[in-house]
Structure prediction request, 98 residues.
Amino acid sequence: MAVVIKTLTVTVATAGTRVSLGNVDKALKVYLSAPAANTGLIFVGDVTVAAANGLQLVKALPPIEISAPSSEFIDLSTIYVDAATNGDKVTVTYLQKV
Prediction:
């Protein structure tokens, strides 16, 4: 099994509007961080996440890690982010089976 490390940036253009992390379905681990340039909080969760609920991602703190159970994968399209401030971003680094 070959594994590659990939990084992408997700921008929440409008606060209060959740955004999917993308169409990646074979991630083994995912690391989420908020860039220092953000001005507000980022919220991480499922399709119900909003700018007032979910796991809070605070800028300048270490990234949070999401790991897949043994022999399973993470589908990034099922993970959503929202922001308290327009234009804030999330850096997504993931290990993907290729």
